Model the fold of this input.
Amino acid sequence: MVTLFILFWIFYALPAILLKIPYIQQKVAQVTTEDLSGRLGVPVRIDKVNIQWPNRLVLDGLYLEDQDGSVLFEANHVAAGLELLPLWKKKFVFTTIRLFGFSVNLKKETPQSSLNLQFVIDAFSSQDTTKKQLDVDLRFNSILIRRGNFSYHVLSEGETPKKFNPHHVDVKNLSVNISLKAFNKDSLNAHIKKMSLEESSGFILNKLSLNVVANKDSAYIRDFEIRLPHTNLNIGGVTMGTSRIDSLQNLLNDAPVNLNIAPSRISLQDLSAFVPAFVNFKDTIELSAEASGFINDINLKHLTLNYSDKMLFVGQISLKGITRPEEAYMFGQVNRMYITNEGLTGLVNNFNKEPIRLPDPVTRLGTIHFTGEISGFFDNLVAYGKVSSAIGSLQTDMIFGSNKEKNTATYLSGTISSSQIELGELLQNDSLFRIARFDISIDAHRPVGGDFSGHINALV
Done:
């Protein structure tokens, strides 16, 4: 017992006490800095090293350059607390990990090039090429990240201001609070209490929180919440099959998913960094649904969309390729849908920078009801089905959308037909027609900042 007490003082207590002395702190920081600089071949700096009783290592003022002389990593404060007794059972239990006031700057010349971090990885990699299977249990009671900045740039790729670009990611004000209860080769148990960030494209994440429990075959996520400036998305529960997952591509395309979207409030403007067409969509839409399939091929069942009392959509939608929003394809079966004059005006104006006034004949349609199908890309949708209005019913087969390359804010083309419609009421002219049937072909467009123009051919 006396021997253990002496060993404890020699190897643990005494160094901890000595590291309270400023001179010792400076010397340890100096020796560590010189060793790392020599190993990496680049400037490294650690201002202060300290051990806080009984088991916490604290580093202040960290700085590391890459091989081009640019800042690769810097941090005001890094701390780690480790429980000692579980080490005997190959369990690493960290009481806390803190990373405050830091910046990580990753870059590469081309998509095929190595990261500017690669020389650090190589310097600390084992020279033993024999593959070894790690069998280590990790646990982090608390991971705290504050005032973090992160950037990643592929220098050969062009930039896209105000639009998210995976080749040019610039995150500011990253804040994370995580509890990792279990992490090993067989299981994961984590609680993301809060994560927030801002990205240079304009995307702002106010809060992401969730609980996840996973093993080799499946994952279960509950209490999944995402808050953006005007969006609050709540997903009650998610189950995912993970037995075939060995890459991000597999996760997106081959992992079966089932989830329940609780009633949520969505503002499409919050997503304009990914879909620029949403930049003026300031109003919020209420959403609820059940979903199944795969992340990149998802079916939304029992989907309900409410645009205040101005619009209602009840049906189901299949979405393909949603991880690439501008290439995503949708197919929707509309069981019930209506939109009021006010709702139609609001939707049109939410896709335009300047206020748009609907033509008088359109306003005379009153509340419009629709059943049928809607399919296509977000900027090129086809509506096929039956439209009922205050003046009668129509059969539609229409394409509508926008085209940035041709500077077209809105275009509309297709056919509309009716076996009986109150045309006099629509045109406010009973001298020509009252009740009519017709087939109409429309090809119209409106340039950005301009008015509608085009051609209408009709057989009445």
Observations:
- The radius of gyration is 30 Å.
- Confidence is low (pLDDT under 50) at residues 1-11.
